[in-house]
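PT: before anyone asks, these are the final sequences, not the draft ones from last week. 1105 residues across everything. Please model them as a single complex and drop the result in this thread when it's through.
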Amino acid sequence: MPTISVDKAALFKELGREYTTEEFDELCFEFGIELDEDTTNSDRPIVDGKQEPPQLKIEIPANRYDLLCFEGIALMLNIFLGRKPLPEYKLTQPARMEQIIVKEDTTKIRPYVAGAILRNIQFDQARYASFIALQDKLHQNLARQRTLVSIGTHDLDTVKGPFTYEALPPKDIKFTPLNQTQEMDGEELMNFYEKHQQLGKYLHIIRDSPVYPVIYDSDRTVCSLPPIINGDHSKISLNTTNVLIEITALDKTKLDIVNKMMVTMFSQYTLEPFTIEPVQIVSEHNNETRVTPDIAHRTAQAEVSYINQCCGLSLSPAEICTLLKKMAFRAQPSTTSVDVINVDIPPTRADVLHQCDIMEDVAIAYGFNSLPRAFPNISGTVAQPLPINKLSDIVRVETAMAGWSEVLPLILCSHDENFGWLNREDDGNTAVKLANPKTLEFQVVRTSLLPGLLKTIRENKHHSVPMKIFEVSDVAFKDLSLERKSRNERHFAAAFYGKTSGFEVVHGLLDRVMAMLKTDFFAEGETATGNSYYIRELDDPTYFPGHAASIHVCIGGKHKVIGSFGILHPTVLEKYELKYPVSTLELNVEAFM
Amino acid sequence: MASDLTNQILDALSASDAPILSNEAFPSTPSLNVKSALDRLESRQMVQYETLEKEIVTLTAEGQEIAANGSHEAKVFAVVLAAMDGLKISDLPGIVGKENAKVGQGNAFKRGWIKKDNDLLRASADSIVDETQQQLLAVQKTKTLDDKKVVADLKRRKLIGLAKELAFKIIKGPKYAREFVKEQTDLTPEMIANGSWKTAHLKPYNFNAKGAPTPSGTLHPLNKVRQEFRNIFFDMGFEEMPTNRFVETGFWNFDALFVPQQHPARDLQDTFYISDPLVADPPREDPPNEPNPPAHLKADKPLDYKKYWDNVREVHEHGKFGSIGYRYPWSADESLRLVLRTHTTSISTYMLHKLAANPRPARFFSIDRVFRNESVDATHLAEFHQVEGVIADFGLTLGGLIGFMEVFFAKMGIHKLRFKPAYNPYTEPSMEIFGYHDGLGKWVEIGNSGMFRPEMLESMGLPKDLRVYGWGLSLERPTMIKYAVSNIRELLGHKVDLHFIESNPAVRLEKD
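LR: through. Structure below.
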């Protein structure tokens, strides 16, 4: 969730009163934003010899792009408090509409563009900083680090339309980037910014493309090389009065949202507040010729009965409309249906997708904590544990009662821990492997519980011996026959660490658990009547030769090998840095389902 | 021998009821030995005693020598007197020893016992009184010396020292007897068989020490908390979901939950993707991930997975079910990527889709491991447990969710809740649940909840008026708050201290 810093004094001035930190926290809480920090009593940084004034750091829900700047927070809180109405945003009708002409080649790299002009805007230090910060927040969040959308802003008085949006080979694009003195072409620019702290991370978006997107004015002055950087020529400053906003994108919907946010938030500073000069996009090749921004309100319908049912209220249509006003909607009861209200969704509220979003805003305006409490009907549901968990609990409790301690290691482990260190081969068809782990600790989903047990012993060498530990949990295997190409399997494993090998001890634990699962011991070859098990000497490189056994069960007439136990091979101990002998037991408990 | 001493003390007391003093009765026995014998007797109430502490004067080695053989000056006087015609000064050390000669000659002059005659020493008296020897003899006998000036003088001459002496004033105890019978350490089968228990003296039990440690196995603390949560869910009519499936698809983990494909949660930074196997199949009927599913999970009518898939695509791409959708080109490939589940809500989705075969009220829960590609620190691990609950019913209200949460958390001992509007892609309304923590004296976020979005439910084929609550919290966080564990690695994973596991008390969420 994005966090926005706003000047405390300026915000309270906008809200028309002072708030204590607690009062403001309460206001945020009710509205659905979160006061993270009030820096009044903290060490604030000193910028240009002056200490930063107290800031409020506010956490914003990820879908409320209209709250990503000071202007939006102040406006929406004022509307929520009933101090201000929603502004009427208007497009002006210029004598000659500015144009951006789109060339077809842009479809190869970044197909969509939109524009808008803020005419006669008055910046001051704070407004200017907020204008820059909003672009940054939009780039970081909705625009997914500029990959989907990027914004360029220009001093319109330094350039001349009509503008063109083109895609050209990097070598053919030459200009002086923002705040530089030296002209460079597209390739040079990539090298120049390679190590740049802020811009370096965006280069990959276009770097390897044969063509780069670029916006020119009618004199072939480069306005910007989206999504990397603007030209120095048209840069805006505190004194700029006419701002051209151009936005390029891969995603049309997000392009539209970004444009709406930029103009609705900052048109309040134009000479005639809340007016925006549109820009015509000429894009015949993909049928995207249109006038931007589109700030028309969308009309949505919401059902009174749905809202009342979900909220557990019985509000009249008029009451609902009044509540919605606090959330920046204009709403009117429908004239044709008593159960419908027509809700005007302003351009600022891109988060509204369904009437459930409107219903939620009614609940917020009413106050979540004031809603009538109810207890949902007990509709005759029956409690029951997952059968495999119930079985696991039997094994867990019996093993603990037998004097073993339960541990809970991680499910992810390194490839070596799962295979090589246990003297096991990876046949490539066994383990689920991760594509993007941050560390070597997390390379595969374990196929055995042993690595976790052995690591637990390794980290607990200060503990007295013998250590007797166990775990009952899932491992996972590749299984190409299934939709998800893998399956879990519930295992039980135990490890004994001490001055003797403990081979007979884990063998005894096996016998005990089998007895508790009503499975009788029979020597191999004997016939049993009920469920039974026997063990057979096993040659397995994980174990010390001659001191390992496979575990065979016959359950419901079906024969199965469900696991093994033995003294671990000394080479395994060495890998896991264990000084004393270890005997382990591991089996699949699903056989007992 | 110590045991002899106990009998000696009992003997010494036998004569009368008058108290005896240990330093008089056993002057040569070290007081520590006396004390341990007395303690043994006292513990059986055979004697009572009080400790007397007094300052005593002792003789140094040199002081003892003088007490026995006289002072240096007396020795010098004796030899000078013996030499009838005077003693050559230079002969003196040869006769009395170097040390006696040096100190004794000076002192004898000072006391006027001898005088110098050229190179000869002559006696000035016929006899002398050796005060030093007499004082030291008196000290040896009484261990006291009253004259402070003499004490200082003798101390300066390093002939005496000062020390503390412990003595004990002993009287008979209520269970006094002449004989100290050997104590039995424990009641034995033989004692019961031969009747000797009747006269046996059992060694008194030390009621101030702990008993013998009991060897015990134990369950993991986090699983103990998990069991408490499970019990709360069972109390409230919930059925446990089959969460034994770590690997999910983009479809089940995200798309079906109406999480758009560009959502940051789907970044490589946040989600573990699977490189092998690489691609899933589109959703289809698979063998259930539990061998014997409850009867109602054997779907009442066949589920149309293709329809579900198409609905999900449409609701993202163009909107459906009254939603305008996210309006972006939805990618089937993205949906078929395999991931480690980032939440167990993927399983809730699976269960709710099953429910669409026969929509009816249902309550599901699960507590199981989820995976996030987080950088590991004190509060983050790449794995943790998610506690999740789902209630599906007709006519559910938001107030019902709040009311339910109040009951649910009250069972964990959290009685003061408040709810903050929040954002979550798959629930609307979404509420963050804050609980007031008395210990910390502040509101703490304890969970997330909401009503699942119609885009998610109606895509499954669930009817519009069936509403579904969902809520979740991590198992680790409330456990850490409850037991003041500051680092999650001390709670989950192989670095957890076994002592912590073994010594952690039983969990009683409603009480602790």
